[in-house]
Amino acid sequence: MRFKRFISALLFLTLVVNVQLFSQNTPIQTNVPALKEVFANDFTIGCLLSYKHVGFATDPKVSGQSSVISSTGGELINYHMNCMTPGNNMKSVYTINISASASAYSSATTTVEKDSIEIHPNVRFNGDLIAQLNWAERQGFTFRGHTLVWHSQSPAEFFRSGYTATGARLSKEVMTQRMENYIKEVIRLIHENWPGMVSAIDVVNEAVSDGNGAFRTANNEYYTTFSDETYVMKAFEFARKYTQIYGENQIKLYYNDYSTSSASKADGIVRLCKPIYEAGLLDGIGMQEHDSNTNPSAQAWISSYNKFDKICNEMAVTELDVSTNSGTNTPSDAILEAQANQYAALFKCFVDRSYFSGRGKIINVSKDGLNDQYTFVTNQSSSIWDADNQCKPAFYAIVDVGNNYNKLDSLIEVVENLSSSNYSTEAWNIITTALTSAKGALSKNYSASSPAVKGLGDAIVLIENALSTPTGIMEYENSVSIKANGGFIFIENAERGSQINVYRLNGSLMQNCTAQSSTISLPYSEPCIVRAITGKEVVVKKIIQ
């Protein structure tokens, strides 16, 4: 009996494992808009993950790389993204070869040799990081480095003499030299193998505490070794120095942190980063954005953005996810709808302040992980793709916000260039009322309970209806016919010598002519108003198509 139960349990376990391994064979959806195209005029779109999530079977093998665990992950990311960040493999616990450094130190036979090794750690990239950088290069991606200096995932031996746990703690002066050469080696490896590909790097990560926004001192080997926070400024000095020496000037230097929408933490970040920015060493602020269906509010996010705006040239959303706090990857439809609205509210904030549009400083938005299964926040349905890499309601909400925002913004610009002289008082009132509502929808802060997709979409309908309102200017044709087709305006039955004027909708003159015959054709490329003065009649026609 026990044997049968064992066999049954083994079969069940095998089934579960197989489902886990092969659940992501479902083809990705290519009949949906690609995020990188939706936001092409706003910011780059990226992801923070590892090579094993995106590798293709046809990729050249790299020694030491992991096996790929998602057969369609690479297709998904390549279809939607144009930027990538390593999840763990660029952190110092993976790039500093402690055992090789310790071996070299112990094998050294002279004091001079030992002193040199003491400040020159062995730095290398592991197979997964090399494979990921190669993959990103083949796909034409830009790459964000993450991270050089962090209190976590930094080997304790890195701060001790001889690179051993029992070695004496290094002096501040020696540790400064060791940190400089470590940063130098990371930049050198990037330059020699992937020149020009890295667009930004998180130089320092999470140096501000939660709660009161004070500098992080607890469990921080850097702080313990330096006895102060000066290592942060030094890290930026070295990063700038070696990106310039190696000609990698496109690499923007970032400070990166989580819970940045907390007012006290944002204040702490400003306090830490302001002098670094003023020294010309800090380019950007990275906001991780591990969020939830109810946090942060748009108002809180904007408040922190406005604080950071004064101490950087650009900003990036570096690890975005929205936890449902449901404890499952299959929450109810109502929870998924709330999540979609929260994602939409956040993206509305991002687009409203996007770098490429000139509206703000958000130059990149990167989501955390691959999907609901492979992500930092697990079992919370936190991604925009489910465990089979299929689009969730949040995905469609993000797309709609991107499209609706930019369409509404363009429509507002069109209406602002109209001239009241081309409309009756009644028609102009309809247009100005719609314009006021549209501007309100564009500036409004949305939330999980106040959908941005609906707010922006309703405003588009309102302003489009207003634009189709008759001008109120008398439109009649009598014997003269004015028609448009194929990019040309055709005027027939005009008297010889008739004056023809074509105006833009804002009232400016596009072209005019004198009729030399009864039939005239004029090219046009935008909505306009045609006026023909023939004999004692004035014939007016609005051309929209």
Structural description of this entry:
This protein has three domains: 2-406, Alpha-Beta Barrel (TIM Barrel); 408-467, no CATH class; 481-543, Immunoglobulin-like, CATH 2.60.40. It has 545 residues and is α/β, with parallel strands linked by helices. 40% of the residues lie in helices and 18% in strands. It has helices spanning 2-22, 35-38, 73-80, 92-95, 98-107, 111-119, 127-139, 172-193, 221-226, 230-245, 263-278, 298-308, 333-352, 393-416, 425-443, 452-467, and strands spanning 44-49, 83-86, 142-150, 198-205, 252-257, 284-287, 290-292, 314-323, 362-368, 481-485, 488-492, 499-504, 509-514, 520-523, 528-534, 537-543. It has an eight-stranded parallel β-barrel, surrounded by four helices. β1 (44-49), α3 (73-80) and β2 form a beta-alpha-beta unit.
Mean pLDDT: 92
Tell me the β content. Answer: 15-25%
Q: Tally of extended strands?
A: 16
Number of domains as seen in the coordinates: 3
CATH architecture of the largest domain: Alpha-Beta Barrel
Helix content: 40-55%
Shape: elongated
- How many strands, which pairing sense, and closed or not: the largest β-sheet? 8 strands, parallel, barrel
CATH superfamily of the largest domain: Glycosidases
Question: Could you say what the CATH topology of the largest domain is called?
Answer: TIM Barrel
Q: What spatial order of strands do you see in the largest sheet?
A: 1-2-3-4-5-6-8-9
As a whole number of angstroms, the C-alpha radius of gyration is: 30 Å
Given helix and strand content, the structural type is: alpha/beta
| SS field, number of helical segments | 16
| Distance between the first and last residues' Cα | 80 Å
Uncertain parts: 1-23
